[in-house]
Amino acid sequence: MIDINTQLSGYCVRINNEAGEFDLIDRTLAQLYPDINIDELPELSISQYQQWCGRGNQTAVYKNGELILQAKNSPAINLAQAKAAKLVELNAAAQAFVNQAADLDSIPDFELQTWPLQSAEAQAWAADNTAATPVLDRIAAARGMEPDKLKAAALRKALAYSALSAHVAGQRQALQSKIGAAKTVDALDKIKIEFTAPEAV
Question: What is the number of other CB atoms lying within 10 angstroms of the CB of residue 115?
């Protein structure tokens, strides 16, 4: 009785790349391939050859003596992958635009972490100039600056950053909706990722 798992099929594998994609060569037609030594090529077992013949809509790769069948990417899968990549690109572009517009790259992280406190204190001061502003007071003292002058500057910066963030967030969300609505990869590729700053007020 023939063991199809060990009996060789007569079909040899010429591997084309590291992914394991290959050409199948009939050993009886080896003379048609003068550039290769057929005896140096791995040969499919009968079982592997049967799998290859019945692969249907699957791709086959050969790695470490194993025949591996893989499902081909459908258009829907390709579109989903393209959308995911486009969203990564979109989010990175939005963050980069805000960083550049607000000059965030020139400010150390520890200082950026004080911005919410500075903003809250500056807005509280704007509503009531007797409100406690310990963070802004310490910054003003360290800079040798009049506290109210620093608070006014912090308020302007906070309002400008809030306007910038909201404006870019709205544009980013609109582009995200377009990406989500794209029906084809070609339509997705036509979506331009670009941002503008809000008009000065």
Answer: 16
As beta bridge partners, residue 71 has: 58
Q: What is the spatial distance between Cα 84 and Cα 178, in angstroms, rounded to a whole number?
A: 13
46 touches 8 (CB < 8 A) = yes
Phi, psi of 80 (to 5 degrees): -60, -40
Residue 159: φ, ψ to 5°: -65, -40
d(CA 54, CA 185): 31
Q: pTM for this structure? A: 0.61
153/9 Cα distance (integer angstroms):
81
The answer to whether residues 27 and 35 touch, using CB atoms and an 8 Å cutoff, is: no
d(CA 123, CA 155): 6
pLDDT digits (tens, 9 = 90+) for 163-178: 999 999 999 999 999 9
